């Protein structure tokens, strides 16, 4: 069995984030935080609380895969969620 290579995992993760960032920069209408439903300003510096991050649907601490399903989120929303299983903002467009 091959030894687990953290450096390759890290490089692969960075490539995933970079690819998604570039995609959302080309299609800013899709840059929406899946946790709060507000738009993400793709021009903010990465250290800004409202900047772009990728959030793992199943948190890594709960058995999620580093390269599993991810969605865009604000840094602050992602941090607030932590290892929880917060549901995304599921508001409807029309009032019933």
TrEMBL record:
Record keywords, A-Z: Endonuclease, Hydrolase, Nuclease
Domain (HNH): residue spans on this chain: 33-83
Feature: compositional bias, Polar residues: 76-96
Region (Disordered): 1-22, 71-96
Presence of keyword Ligase: no
Molecular function per GO: endonuclease activity; nucleic acid binding; zinc ion binding
InterPro entries reported in the protein's UniProt record: HNH
Stated name of the protein: HNH endonuclease
């Amino acid at each position: 069995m091959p030894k687990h290579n953290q450096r390759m995992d890290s490089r692969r993760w960075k490539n995933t984030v970079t690819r998604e960032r570039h995609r959302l920069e080309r299609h800013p209408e899709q840059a929406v935080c899946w946790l709060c439903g507000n738009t993400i300003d793709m021009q903010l510096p990465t250290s800004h609380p409202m900047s772009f991050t990728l959030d793992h649907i199943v948190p890594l601490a709960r058995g999620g895969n580093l390269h599993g399903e991810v969605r865009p989120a604000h840094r602050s929303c992602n941090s607030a969620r932590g290892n929880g299983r917060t549901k995304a903002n599921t508001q409807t467009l029309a009032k019933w």
